[in-house]
Write a structure and sequence with these properties.
8-stranded antiparallel β-sheet; 8 strands; 5 helices; Cyclic Phosphodiesterase, Chain: A
Length: 202
């Protein structure tokens, strides 16, 4: 049985360095180097929609039903703004995900960080509209959302670390080009249905 897809807001990586060799060179430092075509940077992780909807319903003691949460969330995702393409830079590899993932630390323009903050604020408004109390507590405890830290660290996961050392590893600086933001696995979302009293993204 195929696992349910995770829903995220992300930006695709269009280019790393001056050519393919720059990215492929990371293979001497990273195990299982990922294919460059699928590289992306996550701006907001929502998780599996059914899990998220169930958690919100449980948190509100059923006041917001899973179906209502799902419909409101799909409409909310469709109303989110789009971040324009941008460029960033990386000069270090870091270990993520409890030691199982190696990623490029990315320096991004201020407007990208501001956009990510706006996404979190929009998530707050969604949850407020769904009658979630103590929204910050819900966000940090939600297994679907998967927040490990309250602050976002821009990074691009590229493979598995070769060593157990958790310290960042300096690399030759690489330029990264990113495309416009998008909803990952959007094609698997159900139809949003008619708009009701659910919160807007703005």
């Amino acid at each position: 049985m195929q696992a349910a897809p995770r829903i995220t807001v992300e930006v695709p990586v269009l280019a790393v360095g001056a050519g393919p060799a720059d990215y492929e060179g990371l293979g001497v430092l990273v195990d299982g180097l990922r294919r460059p075509r699928g590289l992306h940077m996550t701006l907001l992780h929502l998780g599996i929609l059914d899990d998220f909807s169930r958690e919100v319903s449980q948190w509100t003691r059923g006041i917001s039903s899973p179906g209502d949460v799902q419909a409101a969330t799909v409409r909310w995702l469709g109303a989110l703004p789009v971040l324009a393409p941008f460029s960033g830079r990386s000069a270090a590899l870091t270990v993520l995900g409890g030691g199982s993932v190696c990623g490029l630390e990315v320096g991004v323009p201020r407007e990208v960080r501001d956009f990510q903050v706006e996404l979190v604020q929009a998530l707050h408004r969604l949850l407020d509209g769904l009658l979630v109390d103590n929204v910050d507590d819900f966000i940090l405890s939600s297994r679907a959302l998967g927040y490990r830290h309250p602050h976002w660290t821009p990074h691009v996961s590229v493979g598995r670390p070769k060593t157990r050392d958790r310290r960042p590893l300096e690399i030759e600086p690489l330029a990264l080009d990113f495309g416009a933001s998008r909803i990952r696995n959007r094609q698997f979302l159900p139809e949003p249905g008619p708009a009701g009293t659910s919160p807007a993204a703005s």
